[in-house]
Amino acid sequence: MKHFDWPVRIYYEDTDAGGVVYHARYLAFYERARTEMLRHYNINQRFLIENQHIAFVVKKMSIDYILPARLDDQLMIKSQLENIRKASLIFKQKIFNGNNQLINEAEVLIACVDLNKNRPCVLPKLIISEFL
């Protein structure tokens, strides 16, 4: 399946008083990496929201914190689409530090939702064709 790498640097705003990345910041890093991955593969989320009234929402996420990231670290977020279902996508994401050590990993279930009904809906064919 498709994969995508996205670099991120750790800024002061990402850390606690000890200079260690605050645990919730990893959620934002993963979200941005998935968004950039979709953009890279020509999937425009704004278009989907405005014209097809669908959006992607996180249904379930599990995170394993292995090593800390620290202020000024340069990280690489590796995202891979693991599975496409009728109305959802499963991503595996990993974060590596500058020494190529795995510091964090996540599995994310993304649901496709009809914004008018607030219910899951079938993934658009353009998304399925782009990722297969």
Shape: elongated
Summed over residues and divided by their number, the pLDDT gives a mean of 95
Largest sheet: 6 strands, antiparallel
The chain-level structural class is alpha+beta
Rg, rounded, reads 16 Å
Q: How far apart, in Å, are the first and last alpha carbons?
A: 7 Å
Beta-strand content bin = 35-45%
Quaternary structure type: single chain
Helix percentage? 10-25%
Number of strands: 6
Uncertain ranges: none
N-to-C SSE string, H for helix and E for strand = EHHEEEEEH
Number of helices: 3
Descriptive labels:
single chain; 132 residues; alpha+beta; 6-stranded antiparallel β-sheet; elongated
SSE blueprint and pairings:
Blueprint: E1 3-9, H1 25-40, H2 45-52, E2 54-65, E3 74-84, E4 88-96, E5 102-114, E6 119-120, H3 125-131
Antiparallel strand pairs: 1-3, 2-5, 3-4, 4-5, 5-6
Describe this structure in words.
The chain contains 3 helices and 6 strands, in the order βααβββββα. β3 (74-84) and β4 (88-96) form a beta hairpin. 23% of the residues lie in helices and 41% in strands. Strands 1, 2, 3, 4, 5 and 6 form a 6-stranded antiparallel beta sheet that branches. By secondary structure, it is an alpha+beta fold. The protein has helices at 25-40, 45-52, 125-131; strands spanning 3-9, 54-65, 74-84, 88-96, 102-114, 119-120.
